[in-house]
Amino acid sequence: HFYGRELQEQRILVVPLQGSDELGGLADAAVIPALGVPVVALLDEVRANSWHELTVLPGALSKAERCLRDLASALGSWLRVVRYEDPDVICALPEAAVLLAYPDAGFTSWDDLLARWRAVTSVDDTTHSFKRWALETMALSRKQRMPANFFRHVLEHADASVPSSRFNAAVQQILSHVGADQ
């Protein structure tokens, strides 16, 4: 939505995936490695910055890391990894657009929600998905809490808004891979 022109100019095809399950499916798709072109994976919840780092990650792997490792096995050095620092891509949505789309949700900023979420998860043994927790915390209706509906409605209010600086940094990393591969 925000970088379409720049990505198109660099001939970058964006394939939005919803969750690491779909990423795992790419590893099984024989056509991906057969293309012989770099694949850039932009993911949250990964600790690796490269396909090589995936092979030596210590400790238990997140679901995204396991799927990414499978993809790395299929692609090897063709895989480029871009880590998104926030726990979910929902944090890329412009705060101003969220405020316009949901003025009564009690939303102030992603950083505020992230701090509150980290406080909750640090004292609770259960795993809370940030996206699910954030949408529930905003007291949105069940229909509005569906991620696709939430994204669509916020993007309708994002005319002049820009995504978060952390997401912008991730996109700039993607664009830097294009220059390095040519």
Describe the structure in your own words.
52% of the residues lie in helices and 5% in strands. The protein starts with a helix and ends with a helix. It contains ten helices and two strands. Helix 6 packs across helix 9. The chain has helices at 4-9, 20-28, 31-35, 51-55, 63-75, 95-101, 110-123, 130-137, 147-156, 165-181; strands at 39-43, 79-83. The protein is globular and about 50 Å long. It has a two-stranded parallel sheet with strand order 1-2. The model has no long low-confidence stretch (mean pLDDT 84). It is mostly helical and 182 residues long.
Structural class: mainly alpha
Q: How large is the share of residues in beta strands?
A: 5-15%
Low-confidence stretches: none
Shape: globular
The Rg value, from CA coordinates, equals 17 Å
For the secondary structure, the number of strands is 2
- Portion of residues in helices? 40-55%
Per DSSP, the total helix count is 10
Strand order of the largest sheet: 1-2
H and E order: HHHEHHEHHHHH
Main sheet: strands, sense, barrel: 2 strands, parallel
- Averaged pLDDT, please? 84
Cα end-to-end separation: 25 Å
